Here is the input.
Amino acid sequence: MKKQVVSLMLGCLVVVSAAGCSQTSAADGPKGVTKEMDAFISNYVVDKYKGQLQNPTDKGFEVHKIYGSKKENDATTVYLEYLYEGYSYSTKAELETGSRIPATITLKEKGDSYEVVDYKEPRDGSFYGEDLKKMFPSKYVKQESKDEGNAQKLEDKIQKKVKRWEKEKKKA
Here is the structure.
């Protein structure tokens, strides 16, 4: 009888464990975004700002916090907040331009890479909150609105990248 109970308990444990596993691969980040997707997003944001600035910069840097993602069919929508900063060689490490924005980026696999099939960010001013609620699931809206401390974390990550860039410039 004890063997049957132990066997039953072990069987239940295996079933419960299997049911609790996520569908993301071991290479995925905590929010279901692969390292390749993460790098693609950073490059996309940097490239996006290259053509939009009135005061072009020599080097752009991007870091982000991912709140989560949603996979539908063959596309993945990523909910994030990013910080972009642009610097110029002539001004050394002085910030020329920057933006901190919540956004959704929908990616679709394209060969060995991805393509952006949709990009959204909230409008400024009185539209900001309304747009954010349309873009993000409610749990991410709450996180983003409470996440003012995230700004400093993102800035610290950017500054590490800027310092590495400055060191590389001095070696060249």
